[in-house]
Each structure stands twice: as structure tokens, then as C-alpha cells.
Write a structure and sequence with these properties.
The protein is α/β, with parallel strands linked by helices. The chain contains eleven helices and 14 strands. It folds into two domains: 178 residues, 3-Layer(aba) Sandwich (Rossmann fold), CATH 3.40.50.150; 61 residues, no CATH class. Helix content is 37%, strand content 25%. The structure holds S-adenosylmethionine.
Length: 315
């Protein structure tokens, strides 16, 4: 086996190939996130058109003291998909003597840099970064700070909405196992005027387009594909029937892409579905949580209301 073959992530290669063999070609949104993808996502969160981040942070600011009281003292926070760990500051600042912070992220380098920043900002907090895929069952690392302690999960950003409903339910079951009796504070974006939604994922600055297209060079580097990012275009729209934004990459011409030893052909205008972002009603989200064995203890929203934060507790 050559060195380039040994350094290729064979699991990722098999997963991507399987997705591209479906009638609607699909690639998981987790492949957006190399260092550039994480940077582009951060730029998205600061765009005027992209309301979710600032709206959720507004809820955390306005309702923070109440949320802090409900979570209680000596908390151990496990964050799923921590990214730049920006929102955790708002939560840690309202908690009474938080004991430990466990960020879990697939983009290890980016997450470890953010975790080091949290470590420096909160000297009395134990920070235990975990590089991994939170869709897979996992055991948190053995650490004295976690022994016998009650965990609280944190899953902001409406990242839950990236899963189709059955996978969202499966994630909530996995999270319940990982948290082992602890609660989960989770963000969920709400249904609203489709014009607001369409603009949020088609920003005039083109940052979301760059983020979507960045998946292709990332895969070229990760699994040795030969995607030409210039031969695809970003397309995002609100699917009112399914209540979700869909992001696609549209092939600009008939072309063939090589993945491992396989060739995958694209017709002109054929798309790869790269991400969905489901938008919920409050009742719909509570029902989803209930199917996964959670009870909604409390919900906080902004005034519009465009976004929601839910504290779930094992039913
Ligand atoms: C959309 S960002 C959200 C970041 C942050 N939580 C927020 O709300 O702004 C998603 C983050 O989740 C990470 N991520 C995506 N899929 C993942 C997976 N399956 N397992 C672990 N981390 C994942 C990405 O690397 C990225 O940092």
C-alpha cells in the first residue's frame, strides 16, 4: 500500500462514495469542516442576513441568569459540535462555579485551539476536549473531574436541524446515553417567512456559497477525490413541504469525478445535496424530543419568535 493510500481516511471515502451512489447524490455536512470551512462558518455567523447566531446569543444573554439557575451549581457542560466555542462563554458566565467543560468536535485542530482559549479564560474550570463524531456512540474520557458527576449537554446553533427527523431522533437518543441522566440545553431554529430563510442561506456577500463549495477541495485533500470546485455552483432554497432549507452543489456540466478506484458521473444540472436545515414549530420540536425519551422542562425564545432554546430532561 502506498503512503498516500495509508493516509486516506478509508471510512470517509466509503461514506462519501455511498452517498454519491444514491439517486439523489448526498454528502454529509460534517465534511464542510476543515480549518477553512470552520473559518467560513464563523464568517457566516456575523452576516446581516444570517439571523440564527445573533438571535440565539440574544436569548442566551436575556434569559442567561434564569438558565444558569435552572442548570445549577458545579455544572459539567458537554458541548456537541463546539466549533469556536463562542456561545459557551455566555453560558459559563451565568453558571455558579462551573466545574468542567467538555467540547466535542470533529474538526479537532479548530476545536483544540478554542478549548485552549476557554482554559485560559476560566482558570478554575477543567477543560477536557474530545475530538470525535457525536453521531456515533462514545464514552467520554476517564477523568477525575467527571467521576460520578451529573453532566449537562449543550447543543446550540440548531445543528440538530441538519439531521433528517429520524437521525435527529437517533442523535437525541445517543446524547441521552452520553449524558447518562443529565439534561440537555439545545437550540432549534423556528419556521418563519420563507423570504427571511432564503436570504439567510443566500447572503449577498457569497460567504455561504463559498462555505458550501469548500466541501469539494476539503474532500480532495481528505480522501483524494478530484472534484473541480469551479465546475459546481451553490444552490439553497426553502422546501416548504419538508419545512427545511436545502443546500445543494449543482454540476455545471456533464462530468466524471474519481473517488478511490471508482468513477462517479454527473449529468449537467445534477446536484449533490450537502445540507438540510430543518425549521421547527415549538410543538413539533417537543414531540421530536419526546420520541427520543426527553421531556421539555423549559423553553426560551426571542420576541419574534425566530429561534428557541429548550432545556430537555430525561423522561
Ligand atoms: C454549525 S457549527 C456550530 C458551532 C457552534 N456550536 C455554534 O452553534 O455556533 C457545527 C460544528 O459542529 C462540528 N460538527 C459537525 N458535525 C459533527 C459531528 N458529526 N461530530 C462532531 N462535530 C461535528 C463542526 O466541526 C462545527 O464546529
Amino acid at each position: 500500500m502506498s503512503q498516500s493510500e495509508t493516509s486516506i481516511d478509508q471510512h470517509a471515502l466509503a461514506e462519501v462514495l455511498e452517498g454519491l451512489r444514491q439517486p439523489q447524490k448526498t454528502i454529509s455536512p460534517k465534511y464542510f469542516y476543515d480549518a477553512r470551512g470552520s473559518d467560513l462558518f464563523e464568517q457566516i455567523t456575523r452576516l446581516d442576513a444570517y439571523y440564527p447566531t445573533r438571535t440565539e446569543m440574544g436569548i442566551l444573554r436575556n434569559s442567561g441568569p434564569e438558565i444558569g439557575k435552572v442548570i445549577g451549581p458545579d455544572a459539567i457542560i458537554v458541548e456537541f459540535g463546539s466549533g469556536n466555542s463562542e456561545k459557551i462563554h455566555l453560558l459559563l458566565d451565568v453558571l455558579d462555579r462551573p466545574r468542567a467543560y467538555v467540547p466535542i468536535d470533529i474538526s479537532a485542530e479548530h476545536m483544540e485551539a478554542a478549548a485552549a482559549g476557554i482554559d485560559a479564560d476560566y482558570p478554575s474550570l477543567t477543560v477536557i476536549p474530545v475530538a470525535g463524531d457525536y453521531t456515533k456512540p462514545m464514552h467520554l474520557p476517564g477523568h477525575s473531574a467527571l467521576d460520578g458527576a451529573r453532566l449537562t449537554g449543550f447543543f446550540p446553533g440548531s445543528t440538530i436541524g441538519n439531521f433528517p427527523p429520524e437521525e435527529a431522533e437517533a442523535f437525541l437518543v445517543t446524547a441521552r446515553d452520553i449524558l447518562d441522566g443529565g439534561d440537555l440545553l439545545i437550540g432549534a431554529d423556528l419556521q418563519k417567512d420563507p423570504a427571511v430563510l432564503n436570504l439567510a442561506y443566500n447572503d449577498p456577500e457569497g460567504v455561504t456559497a463559498a462555505f458550501n463549495l469548500n466541501m469539494l477541495p476539503h474532500l480532495n485533500q481528505l480522501i483524494g477525490t478530484d472534484f473541480d470546485a469551479g465546475a459546481f455552483e451553490h444552490h439553497a432554497f426553502y422546501n416548504e413541504v419538508l419545512g427545511r432549507i436545502e443546500m445543494h452543489l449543482v454540476s455545471q456540466a456533464a462530468q466524471i469525478v474519481h473517488i478511490g478506484g471508482s468513477a462517479v458521473s454527473f449529468a449537467a444540472d445534477e446536484t449533490i445535496h450537502t445540507e438540510s436545515s430543518h425549521k421547527y414549530t415549538l410543538e413539533g420540536f417537543a414531540a421530536l424530543a419526546a420520541r427520543a425519551g426527553w421531556r421539555t422542562a423549559q423553553t426560551w425564545c426571542d420576541a419574534k419568535p425566530w429561534f428557541s432554546l429548550h432545556l430537555l430532561t430525561p423522561a
